[in-house]
Amino acid sequence: MTDESLPLVISAPEPRTLDLIFTPAAQAELRRTYRIVEADPEDIAGLGDAVLGEARYIIGQPPLSAETLVRMPNLRAILNVESNLLNNMPYEILFERGIHVVTTGQVFAEPVAELGLAMALNLARGVIDADVAFRDGTELWGGEGNRSARLLSGSEVGIVGFGDLGRALNRVLSGFRAKIRVFDPWLPPSMLREAGVEPASLSEVLAMSDFVFVVASVTSENRGFLGAEAFASMRKGAAFILLSRADVVDFPALMAAVASGHIVAASDVYPEEPLPADHPVRGLKGFIRSAHRAGALDSAFKKMGDMVLEDMALMDRGLPPMRCKRAERETVSRMRSKPVSVN
Amino acid sequence: MTDESLPLVISAPEPRTLDLIFTPAAQAELRRTYRIVEADPEDIAGLGDAVLGEARYIIGQPPLSAETLVRMPNLRAILNVESNLLNNMPYEILFERGIHVVTTGQVFAEPVAELGLAMALNLARGVIDADVAFRDGTELWGGEGNRSARLLSGSEVGIVGFGDLGRALNRVLSGFRAKIRVFDPWLPPSMLREAGVEPASLSEVLAMSDFVFVVASVTSENRGFLGAEAFASMRKGAAFILLSRADVVDFPALMAAVASGHIVAASDVYPEEPLPADHPVRGLKGFIRSAHRAGALDSAFKKMGDMVLEDMALMDRGLPPMRCKRAERETVSRMRSKPVSVN
Amino acid sequence: MTDESLPLVISAPEPRTLDLIFTPAAQAELRRTYRIVEADPEDIAGLGDAVLGEARYIIGQPPLSAETLVRMPNLRAILNVESNLLNNMPYEILFERGIHVVTTGQVFAEPVAELGLAMALNLARGVIDADVAFRDGTELWGGEGNRSARLLSGSEVGIVGFGDLGRALNRVLSGFRAKIRVFDPWLPPSMLREAGVEPASLSEVLAMSDFVFVVASVTSENRGFLGAEAFASMRKGAAFILLSRADVVDFPALMAAVASGHIVAASDVYPEEPLPADHPVRGLKGFIRSAHRAGALDSAFKKMGDMVLEDMALMDRGLPPMRCKRAERETVSRMRSKPVSVN
Amino acid sequence: MTDESLPLVISAPEPRTLDLIFTPAAQAELRRTYRIVEADPEDIAGLGDAVLGEARYIIGQPPLSAETLVRMPNLRAILNVESNLLNNMPYEILFERGIHVVTTGQVFAEPVAELGLAMALNLARGVIDADVAFRDGTELWGGEGNRSARLLSGSEVGIVGFGDLGRALNRVLSGFRAKIRVFDPWLPPSMLREAGVEPASLSEVLAMSDFVFVVASVTSENRGFLGAEAFASMRKGAAFILLSRADVVDFPALMAAVASGHIVAASDVYPEEPLPADHPVRGLKGFIRSAHRAGALDSAFKKMGDMVLEDMALMDRGLPPMRCKRAERETVSRMRSKPVSVN
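Predict the joint structure of the above. Result:
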C-alpha cells in the first residue's frame, strides 16, 4: 500500500525500463520515497488530473503537449534517461516555468572513454591483427611484429568535443604524458586550459595529432563536418577514433582515407545500424569495428537510476539538480542525435 | 681521425647494434665524445693491453674473465643494453672494484605497460572477438554485445612485481580510479604506499583483483610460482595478463584455467618462442596472444642509447650513474631471465 | 567613433571599475567588440529607450525594476562582477525570460585557497610566532621549537562547502596525500566522490579532521551554524580556518574555543569590518588574523574581465554562458552574503 | 632474556636515541627481532670479539677503524640515523666488502617541503607582517593590504637540488599548475623530465623564477655558490627560500639583496646556529626567519626507526636495502654538511 503523502513520480522511461536503470536496492529506495505511477508514454494526457496535478517528476521523455503541462502545476523536472533530447515537448514552456529537463548521458562517459582508449592502443600496436595472425600461425615475433608500432605515451592527442565524454577521455589519458589539444566551440578556452588541455581549432586538432578522438554530439550545424579534406589534413599514419555519432563524419570518405593507407581508424557508430552484411567496412584493413557497444554496459544503465535519485533528493529539498545534465534553452533545439531504439 | 684524448669505450652491444640503440644524432654525439672500439664480444681479451688499459666503459655484456678485468684498471662501468644479466663475468670482482654494471631495461616499461593496458581493456570489453565477428557479419549490437563487458575504472587491480614495469603500469592506470594492490617481496611496504598502491601478499593480489598483471622477473626462487592453485584462487571471470616471462607461470595450468571459463587471460610470452604451429594456445577462447612484442619498439631501443649517454656523462664527471638500473650484489646471481637472441 | 552595429553593453560595474576588472588589452577588446554605454547604476531606467532597447548585456548589478526590464527586449545576460547577489532586481522575470544572471566569484577561488593553505601550514608549524620570536631574540632552535609542530601531509582534512573555493582548496591540497572529507548539502554525494573527496556530515567533518576549512556561503539557513558545540566537537589541537563569511560562525564562541587552548584558528573575515581597535581577537594567542585580504588580488579582479569577455562571446553566438557561474532560480533568494563596498 | 639466535645489532645512534627514532611499537619489534647491544659510540672497538664478530648491523655512525672492521666479518650495513655522513670510517673498505652505508634523511623531506611552501605563500601574500599589523591595529583591509600580493598558482618556480627534498617540494607544489625548473647537476635531464619538471641551468633557474627554493646539499664544490651575482640575476621581487644549509649561500650578500628591496627571502639555516642576539637578519624587512626547525619534527624522527626496520628486514632475507638512501662511493667524500649536535 502506497503512502499517499509521498511525492508522485510518473514513470515512462522507454526504451529503458526501471529494472534496467535501477539496481534492486535503488529501486527499493525509489519506491520507498515516491509514489510511482507507471504510464504509457504515448498517453500521458490520459493519466487524469489527480495524477497530473500531483506529479513532481517524470522519469523518461514521453511526448507532452502544452495542454498537458498546464494540468501539471507541481512538475519540477523531467529526468530523461534515454539521454538524447527529442523534439516532442514544448521546451520553451518548460524553461519559462523553471521545470528542469535533465539527461543522464554522463553514465556513458567512462565506458566510451575506456573503449576509445582500447581502440587507440590497438591501432598503435596492431593488437587485433597480431592476435588473429597468432591464431592462424602467421604471427611475427618481437621487433619483427612491431614495424609500425608506436606509443601513446608522449604522443600528441586531439579531442573533438569536450563534454562528459571528452572529459572522461582526458582522465583515462592522464597517465600518458600526452599533449592533448581540444576543439570545442561551445566552451570558453580558459575552461579547457583549467582542465589541463590546450584549446585548439579543428584544423589544428586534425593536423597536429597522432590520435584524434571524436566525441562531439551531432547538432544542426555539424552534420558531416569531418570529410575527405579533414582526413587528408591528418598526419600520415595517425589514428582516427569515432565514438559519438556517425553523422558527424562523411563515412565513405573516412573509409577511403583508411583504404588509401593515409590513416588508420576505429568506429563504434555507423550510418546505418545494424549495417548490411556486405558493407565494405567489414573487410577494411586498418579499421577496427565495434557495433555501437561503447556505452551500453549494464553498470552504466544502473548509474542512471542513482543519478535520478540524487537529483530528485536535491529538488525535494528545494535545491536545483546538480548530478544530471540540464538541457539548455539555447541549444536544446540544435541537438540532432538520433534516439536509440535498443538499449 | 679520432682524438686520442677522448675516453675509450668498448662497443660489444650484441644482440643489439649501435644503429639499433642510438639515433643518428645520439650516435654522432657518442662518437664525438668517446673513442669507440668495436669489439668481437667473444674475444674482449684479444683487444690488446693498450685498448683494455684505457677502456673506461663497455657497452654490452661480453664474457669477461677475472684475468681480463685485471688488465682494465680504468674501467668504470659495463652498460648492459641487452638488459638481462648473464652469468658470464665475475660480478664479485666488479662490485669490489666499484665498477658499475647497469642495465637499460627501463626502456621497455612504457611499451609493456601500454600493451598490458590494451590487453586488460580488450579482455574487459571483448574488443577483439567483437571486431572478428564484425568482419564475419555476426556482430551483436549495443547491449546485446556487452553481456560480459565491464569497466576497468573503479575496479580492483593487482600487480605482481613493482620494478620499472610495475611502476609504468601504475602510471598508465592513474586515470582509472582503480584500487591497486601490489605484491613485491623485494620492496618495503612503505615505498609501495608512497607510490599510491597498497602492499599485499600474493594470495591477496590473486583473490581480490578483477585484473592481475604479472610483471615480475624470473629469479632462482620464483620459477613457476603461479600455478593451478593460484588461478583457482582468482575471482570468477577475472583477467590474468602475463607480461614478463613465461617461466613464472605454469603455462598449461594457465591454459586450463582459461579453457574452463574460470578466468580470461592474455600473454606476451611463452614457454617456447617461437611457438609450434599446433600449440593449443593458438585456438584458446578467452585468451589474447601477442608474440613477445610488448617491449620491442624501435623507440624503446633508441632510448637505450640516450640512457647510456646520460650515465656516461655523469661518470665522466666522477658521479655515479643514475639513469640506468644498477645490478645489485645481493641479487645479480638470482636473476634467471633468458637472454633474447632477436631484438 | 563607435560602430553602431556593434552589440550594446551597459556598464555599471560598481563597486568595481572597468579599469579594475579589465587589463588594458582586454578592455581594448571589449571596446572593439561592443558599444559600451557607461551608466549610473542608480538610474538605469533613465538611459532612454534607444539604449535600453538595444542592450544585450549589463556588466554589473544595478537595481532594475520590472518596468525597466520590459523596455529591454534584447537583454541576454547580467554579468555581476561584484559576485554577491543582491535582492535588487526581479529575478523571477529574468529566469522566465531566460536572461542569464551570472557571477564572477570564481576568480577569488585560487587566491583564497592559497591563503587558506598558508594559514593551515602556519598553524601547524607555528611559523608566525617563530618569526616574531626570532625578531625578538627569543627563538627556539630545532626540535625545541617544534613541540607542537605537525604535518599537513597524511593528515585528515575537512572542507565545509564545495563550490569554487572548496574545489580550489582541494586542488592545492592535492600533493599532501591527505584524507579529505567534505560537507556540502547542495551537492549529491557522488559528485564529491568523483572529485576525489569523501562526502561527510558536518559533525563528521568537525570531529574527524586535523584541519577544518570553512568556505561555505552564508544563506538564509546557515547563519551562525558553527558555534560553541561545533568547536567543542573538534579534535584537541585541530585547526579551524575561516575563509568565507564571518556570519556562518558564532565569532565569540570561536575565540573562546581558541582562548581555552582546545583549537587553533585563523580567519580572513570578521563580524565587523574594519574591526574596532580594541577587539579581543587582535591579541588572541593561537589565532592568525587576515584583514579580508584572501581574495582581493589585482590578478583576480583582472580575471573577471576575461570571464565576462569569454561568456559574452559564447552568448553572441547563441550559446549559453559557461565560464561564469549562473544564479539558480531555486537558490538566488537564499544567498545572504553582504556585498562589499571596497574592492 | 634475549634469544641468542637473533641477529645482533649494535646501537650507537647518537645524537639520536632509540626512544627518539622508534615508536614504542617499533622499538618492541626491534627488540623482538634482534639482539640489541647498546654501545658507546666512541669505543666500538671495545665491544669485544664476540659482539663484533656477530654484529650484522650498526644503527648510528660511530667512528670505526679498519682494524675494527676486520673483526666484524658479518657486518651487512651501517644505518646512519644522523643522516649527514661524517668522515669517520674507512668507506672504501665498506664499499669493497659490500657493507651498505645508508642514511635516513628522507624523513625530513616532507616537513621541510611543507615549511618551504608556507614560506613561499607567506612571502607572496605578506601573511606574517599582516598578522603582526593586525595585532597592532595597523592592518590594511581588502585590496589595500594586497598591493604586492601575488599567486603561487601559475607562477614560475625554481628548485636547486632534486634529491628527496626537491622531490617532496615538487609534490606539495603539484596542485599549483606552476612551471617548475630544476637545477641538479648530479641527475640526468631525462629523469627530471620524467618527474614532470624542466631541467635547467642554475642561471636559468635564478633568472626565470618567481620563487627559488634551495634544497641542495653542501659539497666540497658548491660552498657559497649563491652570492651577490646570483641574487642580482633574480627577478625583481622574486622570493628566495633557503632550506638546506647556510654554507651554500653568501649570507651577507643574501641579506643585502633583501635589504635593497630587490628580492624577498626566507631561511631556516644560518652561518652560525644559534645566532648572536644582535645579528642583523633579526630585524631585516622582507625576510622570514625560522630557527632550523624545518625538519626536526617528532613524526619525522619516528619514521627513521620505521625505515631502519624495513631495510634490516630486506637485508635479513639477503636482499639489498631499498628504503634508506645508500652512500655512493663516488660522492661520499664530497658531502660537507655539518653534523647536527641537537635533534
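The two ends of chain A are 32 Å apart (CA to CA).
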